[in-house]
Amino acid sequence: MPPSPGRGTRGHRIGPHTADCVIEAWGPDRCACLTEALRALVEIFAEAKAPAGEVPVTQVPLCAEPGPDIGILVALLEEVIYTTDVIGVPVRFQLWDADDGGVRGFMEVAAHSCVEQVGPIPKAVSYHEIEIGPRDGAWRCRAVIDV
After folding, report:
1. In this predicted model, what pLDDT tens digit does every residue of 94-119 receive, in sequence order?
2. What CATH code would you report for 13-146?
3. What does the DSSP assignment read for the chain?
4. What's the whole-model pTM score?
């Protein structure tokens, strides 16, 4: 992750990790960081064949119940993996903090035929080396993804 992102900066990156892959994400708040983590997860294995707005999508609810931030991160990542298995590939995300401390939102999901598979579809999220929280004026997270 960048050493000191400016206020409002958000982004993500993907790197190798033994036989798996690691995603890192950052944002000015928890939901921005989580959204970037979800985008990174999808970039491991898929790329839209057409520009945003030209791919037909279905809106699917996305939520994580209140709890520790690590649990929320894992729940959202696992929901994206599950959705990819049974419905299609999430291509856009909208998240917000719920009043109860959880996270609510939705993902726009495209049919598998509307995306190009560029890598193996993830199988699971590892609790090994996972982290999330505020640091240096931004929210940051890191997760190892089993591919």
Report:
1. 999 999 999 999 999 999 999 999 98
2. 3.55.10.10
3. --SSPPTT--EEEEEEETTEEEEEEEESSHHHHHHHHHHHHHHTTEEESS-TTSS-EEEEEEEE-SS-HHHHHHHHHHHHHHHHHHT-EEEEEEEEE-TTSSEEEEEEEE-GGGEEE-SPPP-EEEEEEEEEEEETTEEEEEEEEE-
4. 0.90
